[in-house]
Amino acid sequence: MLTYLGTVISLLRDRQEFLTEIHQGVKLNHKITALLMSSSCCFAIYGGIIGAFHSPLQVLSSAIKLPALYLITLLVCLPALYILNVTFGAKQTLTQHFTYLLAAVAVIAMLLLGFAPVALFFLITVNDYQFFLLLNVVIFALTGIIGVSFLYQVMKPIDTDDLSQSVKVRTNILRFWLGLYGLVGSQLGWTLRPFFGTTGQFELFRPREGSFFAAVHTMLMNLLF
Amino acid sequence: MEANLQTLLISPQEREHLSGLEWDGLFLGGLFTGVYRPRLLRHPAPLLTFAATQLFVALLVFIIILPIGYLSVQHPSLTSGQAAIPQFLAVTLGLTLSLLILWHSLIWFRITRMKTLLNLLDEIDQYNQTIAAIDVLDQLARVSALPLANLDREQVLQALHLVRHSLICGLISERIFRENQALIARRQDLCDRIASNLATLQTFTLTEQTSEYTALLTTALTIGREVYEAMQNCQRAQKS
Questions:
Q1: What CA–CA distance (Å, rounded) separates A131 from B207?
Q2: Nearest Cα to B122, choosing from B154, B167, B86, B152?
Q3: CB A48 within 8 A of CB B46
Q4: Phi, psi (degrees; rounded to nearest 5) at A206
Q5: Considering only CA atoms, which of B21, B26, B27 is closest in space to residue B175?
Q6: A206 touches chain B (CB under 8 A)
Q7: What is the pLDDT of residues A131-184, one digit of tens each?
Q8: DSSP character at residue A26
Q9: CA of A37 vs chain B CAs: smallest distance (Å)
């Protein structure tokens, strides 16, 4: 267990070395296990905190749903990235792609864990659902942007040994894929809601209705008109 | 530890390099695609790690199959409130358990296929412990200023050198057997070398039969013999 923790700490402390090892395919299975373990635990802790706004049942539910949100989004989007990259000349294996993505997810998880005391503080001191929701939306957005920019830096192809045309295409693929990752993540988050739980009875899931984007559109229309 | 003892040790990196498999303390070849070492589970610390890992894998499987549980409670007859919980748990826990049983079956299948390697790793652990024991004896001798049984020590070191060579040959042969199922000319040569090392080991006699080194030499001989037997078994399995 401690060796897994050491692996995650090496990602935070010596990122370049960690990424070089992924590039060279060094101990990928160990890295995958360590990243999965650490990110799941961090997401579960943060999920538990946001669920604590409602009830103990919601704590359990959100502690499972939040890791599911990030990991399932990654699994859904991974084949598209891998196949597109390989089609346009990438030499990394599927396992290497998976490890890179997991590293980015682990960075998001660690950042969320860093914000956990702040969320806990406001959970204890403020009893306002809207404020707590807004605070967490800001935290999720901030950690998501940092995680995605990390992934962009890490996976951006460099034209040392590749044709520059292929590098350009793959950079565009990566940009497109990051957008796709955001869309899938948003919709999955909408599907798996509630994470916070409004006042009233505990709900495991809400009935399947519309999409995240339709809901945002409706909300904006209501705000503007 | 003295330099000559240090060079005798078989490090985890060397084991990984020779066997071609990632080494994770308890798991060999990765958590999801490899095997665990059943013999290590006799000790409390690895057993605890194993239990924690099982719990983690169960939770991870539960998380991954969450969408199936979600779909199972989308039926119009089910409300989205607490009534959906038993249905959701029955589906997700049932699937989680099934997948865990499948995973363990795969692990057991791999364990039976990698028995030789697992035995060799156990022998390497015992071999490294023997070297650590010699180091302890050296330290005790230095502190108590007792006369050193140099001849015995040298013989044990020579014996361990041969055992090391046998273990390395064993790891290389096992990897060749594992990665190349077809007959390979080199394997006979490697097995012959292991047999020759065992024969040399058996010629060692210690001057002081009651010395602590006698026990260590016996251990070295046992390891050498077991490596030889493991490789013989492996060869027989390949032929049949």
A1: 83
A2: B167
A3: no
A4: -95, 155
A5: B21
A6: yes
A7: 888 899 899 999 999 988 988 888 877 655 556 677 788 888 888 999 999 899
A8: T
A9: 7
Say what the ipTM of the complex is.
Answer: 0.84
Q: Can you tell me which residue has the tokens 């000559």?
A: B4
Q: Are B35 and B27 in contact (CB under 8 A)?
A: yes
Buried b (16+ CB within 10 A) or exposed e, A112-133: bbebbeebbebbeeeeeeeebe
Q: Which amino acid is at A95?
A: T
Report the residue from A1, A67, A207 with minimal CB separation from B49: A1
Amino acid making up residue A20: T
* A72 in B contact zone (CB under 8 Å): yes
Task: Based on DSSP, count helices (H) and strands (E) in chain A, helices before strands.
Answer: 8, 0
CA distance A52 to chain B (A): 17
Q: Which residues in chain A touch residue B84, judged by CB atoms under 8 angstroms apart?
A: 204-205
Place of tokens 């108590």: B144
